[in-house]
């Protein structure tokens, strides 16, 4: 939206500096997440790696996908899809609580070779 | 994305600009056409997110209720190969974002080059994936219903696989790319001969793309080989060499006397292991002996040192023994194959879409007021990258 007043009409070329900067940040976070995976972070491990993934995804969406300059409607639509994904996950997980005793009682995963 | 309505001069121009060759007549302006395409691709991306979300739900549900399966299974995935693929994909995201920029500036040649690099990276990703898949299939790591993990690799049976010392499955996966390589090369030569320069470049680009697959596959193989050798040094065995075991055993049967004179200890160990195949202590003992022996004779005879290594079972402590695994570890791999497989299909679709962009860049179609297709395909490509950004820690980095 901010690109309308430049020389290229509705095109808003992202500067190479920004593109390479974002790429460097993405590589940094990739190396970071691989290195952290070697550490014992306990139950927080998954949340840290998901957090890093979300930072990376945000960087890609904002700058590689030009969302920073995107029209509001498109942003609402795309980000809104994640709202529906979270509903999907949330309701499904809530539902599994209803039959948690059966899941726990079912001797599938605790089964070991003698 | 509506293309090639050439009669735009017959219409009233609502715009100060003249409407170009690729601006469809039902749009008021180039910008309106661009915005419509943008809306379309975002809607498509929303459907893609929802499409993948089913698999994410399956993953979360299983991981929440049965975390043991994931802890046991993740050791089968190599996080460095996963990281390599992540970096390849991130780099391809950079190049396509740059391609969009060059299209916006009307630099068609640069756009073609960058799109081609993106395609090559995409194919490389698939090449590394082929290595990962074939390696797992060799070990019997399949979906739940077919899960048959074993420490012994399936030996290659195809003559080509044997002579190259690689997996049958890898040869199987590489047949289609090999045929495509030949076809595209043939087409490129034909185009050169009939003087169609743009099509010649296009076909050469496809040749390079398929070459990217083989680059990824060879690179992945070299990595796997190096890893197997490092493990062999560490634990006195080699996965890569185990693959060749039946061949060597066959040779040993044919020439027992020779084998005996060369390596008196070797045969005994093989025997001991045959008897106590399931016994960790014996296997470890045999391997330790064998390893010591190995050091003595390694330089004397290349073949016999190979031969010794075959006798040992892999004792990599990170590699679980089949009997220690839960029956349902295969569930993880059902989810793994569905998620990465669907993602790989998207990569393949992306290559097709990118090749269209590549052709149009070569034909010089992009202008500052007409670059929509590059942007749309770029957005799709970034979404594929976005999904991998989540798949990588979810599948490869479980602790």
Notes on the structure:
The complex is a heterodimer of chains A (114) and B (399). Chain A folds into two domains: 1-70; 72-108. Chain A is 67% helix and 0% strand. Chain A contains four helices and no strands. In chain A, α1 runs antiparallel to α2. Chain B has 399 residues and is mainly alpha-helical. Chain B has two domains: 6-224 and 321-396, Four Helix Bundle (Hemerythrin (Met), subunit A) (Up-down Bundle); 237-311, no CATH class. Helix content of chain B is 73%, strand content 0%. Chain B has 15 helices and no strands. Chain B has helices at residues 30-65, 67-73, 79-104, 108-138, 159-164, 168-193, 197-235, 239-242, 245-254, 256-262, 264-275, 280-297, 302-311, 329-362, 372-396. In chain B, α3 (79-104) packs antiparallel against α4 (108-138), α7 runs antiparallel to α14 (329-362) and α12 packs antiparallel against α13 (302-311). Chain B starts with 29 loop residues before the first helix and ends with a helix. Classes of the chains: A mainly alpha (114), B mainly alpha (399). Chains A and B meet through α1, α2 and α3 of A and α1, α3 and α15 of B.
Descriptors:
heterodimer, A: mainly alpha, 4 helices, flat, disordered N terminus, B: 399 residues, mainly alpha, 2 domains
Average pLDDT reading of chain B: 80
Main sheet: strands, sense, barrel of chain B: none
CATH class of the largest domain in chain B: Mainly Alpha
State the shape of chain A.
flat
Topology-level CATH name of the largest domain in chain B: Four Helix Bundle (Hemerythrin (Met), subunit A)
Order of helices and strands of chain B: HHHHHHHHHHHHHHH
C-alpha end-to-end distance of chain B? 45 Å
Low-confidence stretches of chain A: 1-8
Largest interface: pair, residues per side: A-B, 58 and 64 residues
Low-confidence stretches of chain B: 1-17, 238-314
Q: Helical percent range of chain A?
A: 55-70%
Number of strands of chain A: 0
Q: Please give the domain count of chain B.
A: 2
Structural class of the secondary structure composition of chain A? mainly alpha
Largest sheet of chain A: none
The oligomeric status of these chains comes to: heterodimer
The count of domains of chain A is 2
SSE-based structural type of chain B: mainly alpha
Strand residue content of chain A: under 5%
């Amino acid at each position: 939206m901010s690109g309308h007043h430049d020389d290229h009409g509705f095109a808003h070329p992202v500067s190479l500096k920004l593109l390479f900067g974002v790429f460097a940040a993405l590589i940094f976070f990739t190396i970071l997440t691989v290195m952290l995976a070697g550490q014992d972070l306990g139950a927080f491990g998954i949340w840290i790696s998901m957090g890093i993934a979300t930072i990376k995804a945000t960087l890609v969406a904002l700058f590689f996908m030009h969302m920073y300059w995107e029209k509001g409607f498109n942003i609402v639509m795309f980000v809104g899809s994640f709202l529906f994904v979270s509903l999907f996950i949330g309701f499904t997980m809530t539902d599994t609580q209803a039959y948690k005793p059966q899941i726990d009682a079912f001797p599938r995963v605790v089964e070991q070779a003698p | 994305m509506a293309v090639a309505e050439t009669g735009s001069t017959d219409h009233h121009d609502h715009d100060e600009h003249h409407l170009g060759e690729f601006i469809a007549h039902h749009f008021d302006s180039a910008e309106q056409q661009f915005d419509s395409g943008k809306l379309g691709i975002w809607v498509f991306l929303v459907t893609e997110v929802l499409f993948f979300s089913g698999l994410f739900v399956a993953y979360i549900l299983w991981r929440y209720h049965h975390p043991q399966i994931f802890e046991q299974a993740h050791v089968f995935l190599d996080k460095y190969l996963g990281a390599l693929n992540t970096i390849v994909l991130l780099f391809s995201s950079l190049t396509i974002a740059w391609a969009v920029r060059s299209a916006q500036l009307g630099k068609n040649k640069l756009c073609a080059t960058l799109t081609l690099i993106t395609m090559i990276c995409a194919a490389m990703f698939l090449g590394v994936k082929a290595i990962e898949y074939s390696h797992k299939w060799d070990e019997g790591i399949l979906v739940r219903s077919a899960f048959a993990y074993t420490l012994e690799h399936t030996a290659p049976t195809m003559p080509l696989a044997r002579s190259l010392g690689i997996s049958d499955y890898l040869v199987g996966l590489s047949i289609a790319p090999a045929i495509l390589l030949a076809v595209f090369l043939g087409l490129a030569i034909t185009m050169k001969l009939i003087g169609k320069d743009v099509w010649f470049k296009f076909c050469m680009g496809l040749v390079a793309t398929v070459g990217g697959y083989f680059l990824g596959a060879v690179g992945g193989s070299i990595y796997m080989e190096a890893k197997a050798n490092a493990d062999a040094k560490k634990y006195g065995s080699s996965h890569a060499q185990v693959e060749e075991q039946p061949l060597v055993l066959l040779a040993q049967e044919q020439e027992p006397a020779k084998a005996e004179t060369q390596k008196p200890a070797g045969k005994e160990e093989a025997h001991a292991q045959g008897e106590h195949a399931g016994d960790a202590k014996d296997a470890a003992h045999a391997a330790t002996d064998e390893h010591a022996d190995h050091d003595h004779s390694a330089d004397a005879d290349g073949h016999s040192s190979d031969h010794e290594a075959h006798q040992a079972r892999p004792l990599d402590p990170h590699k679980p023994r089949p009997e220690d695994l839960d029956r349902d570890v295969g569930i993880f791999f059902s989810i793994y194959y569905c998620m990465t497989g669907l993602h790989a299909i998207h990569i393949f679709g992306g290559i097709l879409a990118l090749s269209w962009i590549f052709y149009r860049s070569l034909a010089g179609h992009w202008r500052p007021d007409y670059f929509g297709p590059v942007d749309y395909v770029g957005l799709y490509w970034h979404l594929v990258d976005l999904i991998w950004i989540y798949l990588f820690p979810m599948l490869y980095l479980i602790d």
